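Design a sequence for this backbone.
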């Protein structure tokens, strides 16, 4: 068979594989969005609007990657260096990465806001507030790390790190910081729920069950490490064009799963038996219902003595309304 035909077939398979990966992530993102709309209907809260923003940003990011694929993303570096579409490809790559960071940290922020509804007043609330601030700061830090002192458009392929240093100093180090910020936020988001849940008065089995639900996010760390491995390969492999395709795929996988995890945490199974103590003689249960969380005693009674508990009362079709005081009479 003619070598040119073999080369064309291999090139076509690379491009098709990249398109399939991006399209699958796009489909999963849209499916998760529809699932969230369904399971949270009439119960929308602040985190739902943040997830909506993350989803919209991710759609813009997918659009940029489709443009990049059409302009040569996935081709060998030799082809890209001679491509007349290199400037357009670089613009699409940069726009895609910026939107990826924004969408990723929006999904992290949404998950953190959801955790805040399970925090008791005092130290736990402060922990959640610190987590929210950290997510915002590291998200902004990631964007600054990505953009500061870099030319928006260059004549060198964006992912060609060894040759890109004249246009964006230390590109590899920048992406190490981005990966570090990403990992730090994820580890914090895995650590905070343990402290939130473990101090509550409930059976250990239930504590572990709820913590496990929060740990749905754990694979995001693995996806970050996988992406960072191929970022390292950009510095040692001779064909950065082909390696960059794999970096982009892991970016799409991480973003898609992060948005999905923010939705899976909201499943009714997570909040239907969430127990906490408000100073009552027995354990209490905040039961997820259409009208909000209904506070009740573990043994089925409404309370012991004239105890007062605070819980969120939701009205007007909104999941999270103003806080009010509910008196529990014996």
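Sequence:
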């Amino acid at each position: 068979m003619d070598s040119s035909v073999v080369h064309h077939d291999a090139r076509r398979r690379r491009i098709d594989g990249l398109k399939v990966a991006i399209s699958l992530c796009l489909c999963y993102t849209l499916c998760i969005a529809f699932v969230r709309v369904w399971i949270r209907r009439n119960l929308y809260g602040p985190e739902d609007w943040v997830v909506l923003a993350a989803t919209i940003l991710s759609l813009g990011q997918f659009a940029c990657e489709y443009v990049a694929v059409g302009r040569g993303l996935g081709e060998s570096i030799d082809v890209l260096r001679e491509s007349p579409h290199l400037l357009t490809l670089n613009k699409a790559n940069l726009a895609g990465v910026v939107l990826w960071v924004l969408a990723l940290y929006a999904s992290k922020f949404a998950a953190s806001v959801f955790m805040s509804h399970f925090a008791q007043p005092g130290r736990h609330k402060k922990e959640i507030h610190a987590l929210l601030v950290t997510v915002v700061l590291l998200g902004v830090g990631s964007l600054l790390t990505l953009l500061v002192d870099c030319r928006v458009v260059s004549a060198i392929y964006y992912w060609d790190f060894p040759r890109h240093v004249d246009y964006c100093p230390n590109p590899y180090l920048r992406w190490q910081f981005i990966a570090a910020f990403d990992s730090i936020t994820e580890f914090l988001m895995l650590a905070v729920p343990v402290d939130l849940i473990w101090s509550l008065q409930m059976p250990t089995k239930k504590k572990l069950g709820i913590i496990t639900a929060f740990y749905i996010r754990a694979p995001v760390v693995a996806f970050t490490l996988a992406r960072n491995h191929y970022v390292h390969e950009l510095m040692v492999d001779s064909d950065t064009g082909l390696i960059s395709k794999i970096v982009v795929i892991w970016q799409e996988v991480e973003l898609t799963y992060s948005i999905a995890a923010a939705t899976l945490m909201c499943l009714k199974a997570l909040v239907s038996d969430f127990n906490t103590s408000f100073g009552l003689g027995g354990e209490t249960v905040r039961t997820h219902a259409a009208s909000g969380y209904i506070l009740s005693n573990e043994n089925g009674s409404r309370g012991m003595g004239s105890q007062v508990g605070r819980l969120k009362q939701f009205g007007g079709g909104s999941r999270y309304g103003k806080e009010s005081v509910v008196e529990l009479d014996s």
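The longest strand covers residues 284-289.
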